[in-house]
Amino acid sequence: MQAKEIKVKPSEILKNVQDNLYEIWLPSWYAWFKDTQNGGFHERLDEKLKPVDLGYRRLVTQCRQLFVYSHAALTTGDLSRMDGIEEAFDYLVKYYYRPETGGWRFSVKPDGTPIDGTYDLYGHAFLVLCCTYYYRLTQDETVMDIARRTLDFINTAFRVEGLPGFAEALDENLKPLDRMRRQDPHMHLFEASLFMYRVTNNKPYLSLAKELADLFTDKFWSRESGTLPEYYDDFLNPHPESGHISQPGHHFQWIWLLEKFQETRRRKHQNLFDIMSALFVWADKHGFDPAYGGLYDELDIQGDILTDSKRIWPIMEALKAYPVINRLENDPHYCTRRAEDLVTLLRAHYLEEDGRWTEQLSRDMKPLRTDMPGTTPYHIYLGIAALSEIE
């Protein structure tokens, strides 16, 4: 895919990309990723929109796809373009769910044959998240029952005595695996618990969200550096070898989630506002490339570049954060201009008119990948959908 110039007036930029999202891109993604032979969704597509034969399909990919289409169908009220979404959910439950434990497999073959029986916290968080909107779409009570049982499984199996937070992953015997701990799975569990509370009004889910918000402020957020490190040791101290790595995209993502948390609790805390502002200042200052545009994939906590490539998802997380910062800062027009600049950049270098995208670019904005992972529509969809709050 070649970079192209997109000429639109500033006043039209945000509306134009939103119209494309709902009218063209979402129906296209659904048609491209839906596997009409085996069921479920393809893990990845090549530049010709053909499924890439990886030999596996991860739980997280199925869940993210279902979440996007369920959310979009609810938002638009149009189910006609999502024909067969019920079969996709049935595929998910049939091949990934393990009733003997209440957990979910990490991956299966396209035909459903089990491959990796690891229990992955990241994937389980997205299972709960996709259930919230799929339930709202279908009103099928068994879906909420599945989500509740999955959260119960997480609450019991993924907790490790004497250690904060939740284990990264478990083996098939429910023993924690020796893996470097990350903030990322906890962030998505925070997201899932928030949405579960919004759907059920069940206070234990809000309590779990509060626990994870406290974990963020106590362990993940570094007040000293004003950053969010990615990797931690068993006690959630920054990892001695990798604790200096930070991703600007996750700074923006936490801003959006912390605002959702405050909205959900109907309480405003100055401490969280201060942290959200600090996250924004650091990511906005250090994350953007002033020479070529775009957001760097990885920096160290001093703001120096570690990985100068630029995936599409951090831009989408920035678009989610800008409406939040618009409401918090004294100069809301700054964030609106930034959002318009990013959408223009997306249209010129990342997003095609028919819904195809470039997953990752070099620093000078040359394509590094031609494939399209099935997890990425989650970021694109929520990022563009959030623009409705900034207009």
The total of helices stands at: 12
Order of helices and strands: HEEHHEEEEEHHEEHHEEHHEEEHHEEH
The major β-sheet equals: 3 strands, antiparallel
Topology, number of strands? 16
Percent of residues in β-strands: 5-15%
Cα radius of gyration in angstroms = 20 Å
The main sheet orders its strands as 2-5-6
Could you characterize what this model shows?
This protein is mainly alpha-helical and 391 residues long. The chain contains 12 helices and 16 strands. The protein has a 3-stranded antiparallel beta sheet. A 3-stranded antiparallel beta sheet has the order 11-12-13, with no helix packed on it. A hairpin with a 4-residue loop joins strand 3 and strand 4. The two termini are 30 Å apart. The relative contact order is 0.12.
Offer a quick outline of the entry.
The chain contains 12 helices and 16 strands. The protein has 391 residues and is mostly helical.
